[in-house]
Design a protein that fits this description.
Involved in peroxisomal proliferation. Promotes peroxisomal duplication, aggregation or elongation without fission. The protein is 80% helix and 0% strand. It has four helices and no strands.
């Protein structure tokens, strides 16, 4: 929410509605809030992947108790969820690199190749999450 709130002030200052001098400060606050969100979502996805891997392991070891079709469908569903969460993690890491380039410019994050690859990874992961088949 910090990101969305301050991003509005950033754009208002860039178009001249607010004082243009505050644009740099609003950009920093907005990118910092955005980065915090990306870190949070990466951690949450890692937790969910860990839980899904445990349930996958449990399902595979208890395969004798249930019909193979039902178990096979659940295993495919869990594997699909894991892949989607990995796509989310890759997109969030790429977006985090882009946001870090805005917060504190440095040679790695602001390099043309790094920003280009990050943008492509983010777009690719978003495309795959929207149209997986």
């Amino acid at each position: 929410m910090v990101y969305f709130f301050f991003d509005h002030f950033l754009w208002l200052s860039r178009i001249g509605t607010l004082d243009p001098k505050i644009a740099k400060r609003m950009s920093f606050i907005s990118a910092f809030g955005e980065s915090f969100g990306y870190v949070f979502f990466i951690v949450i996805d890692c937790i969910f992947i860990r839980q899904r891997l445990k349930s996958l392991k449990t399902l595979r070891y208890s395969i004798d108790d249930k019909p193979k079709e039902e178990t096979g469908e659940k295993i495919k569903e869990i594997q699909g969820d894991i892949v989607m969460r990995l796509m989310g993690i890759s997109a969030n890491i790429a977006d985090l690199i882009i946001a870090l380039a805005e917060i504190e410019p440095n040679p790695f994050c602001n390099h043309t190749v790094t920003l280009g690859i990050s943008g492509l990874v983010s777009a690719w992961a978003g495309w795959y999450r929207n149209w997986p088949s």
